[in-house]
Amino acid sequence: MGLALFATLPAFALAAPKPAAPLRCPSDPVTVQVLGSSGPIAEGIGAAASYLVRIDGVPRLLIDAGPGSFLRFGEAGATVATLDGIALSHLHADHTVDLPGILNMGAFEELGPRLLLIGPNGAGRFPGTTDFVRGLVSRDHGAWRYLAGYLDGEEGSTQLDIREVKADKQDDPPKRFAIGSDIFLTAMPVHHGDAPSLGFLVEAKGKTAVFAGDQNDESEAFASRLAGKKPDLMIVHHVIPEGPGQPIGLHRSPTSLGELAGEVAPRRLVLAHNMKRSLDRLNEGIAAIRVHYKGPLVVAHDLDCYGLGR
Ligand SMILES: [Zn+2]
Q1: Per-residue pLDDT tens for 242-259?
Q2: What's the confidence (pLDDT) of residue 3?
Q3: Which of 29, 63, 114, 130 is deepest in the core (most CB within 10 A)?
Q4: What are the boundaries of the signal sequence (predicted)?
Q5: What CATH code is carried by the domain that includes residue 89?
Q6: Which residues, in sequence order, are CB contacts of 247 under 8 Å at separation 6+?
Q7: What is the CA(107)–ligand 1 centre distance, in A?
Q8: Ligand 1 centroid to 191 CA: how many Å?
Q9: What is the mean pLDDT of residues 114-138?
């Protein structure tokens, strides 16, 4: 019976799956695309934290690579070959799990000789970014040691140029990097519990985007370092709702996100890293943010893409 049914299936039922068409970003010179708008729990809302910065439509900088972002990277039409840099805000799994998948993808492409990888130093329970990458791909003990060329450059492989930023104290000085010739990324230490963590300011073609990363309200230096920048976009992480019982040692409440946005005054504020618990109380959260920030505000979905203006 099963066989007979199979035999009568129309031919198109056996066709090979087709990849989704790459999703288009606005034609602005600088765009920011959300690859993962949620995490760390798989709640059917989206992939975990990850963002792609495009210049003239070309993906050039990947920020974080949370679980699920590998799939979105492909759906966004991105390739590793066009990237000049990858920046990791911190080394929690919900920001880094898909990095090996993306490096593995790069092994199938023609890459340049070096790829910049920026991330925090180590402290306590967290390795520094160099040790973290060694744990993934070092020739002696890496989990994916067959990708060791990313560390030692053997067999003509692209080498990761790993730069650690001291971030175990939020008053550690910011560090500025050139990503290719036309993107400048400033890594700024923020407070995220015991995980050395960074927020990022990205400047390109006269446009500015801020990726606040995971931070709590003790990250006082962050806003003052952005004074006068008037960013075109700021992405903040809307992980917790207002009220007691939330992990405020790790994250800002909506009131605190509003205070940050009020001080930094971005032209557009994006709520990402959304969780069910924060979205269930979205109206209350937005009202709390609105006390301090009156500008345009959007809630991110995977693959949303924002133009930074002309
Ligand atoms: Zn996180």
Answers
A1: 988 899 999 999 999 999
A2: 44
A3: 63
A4: 1-15
A5: 3.60.15.10
A6: 239, 240
A7: 27
A8: 13
A9: 98
In a domain, 226, yes or no: yes
Domain residues for 176?
26-300
Q: Does residue 40 lie within any of the structural domains?
A: yes
> Is residue 16 a part of any domain in this protein?
no
User: Domain tally for the chain?
Assistant: 1
Confidence band (pLDDT; 50, 70, 90) for 24? confident
pLDDT > 60? residue 13: no
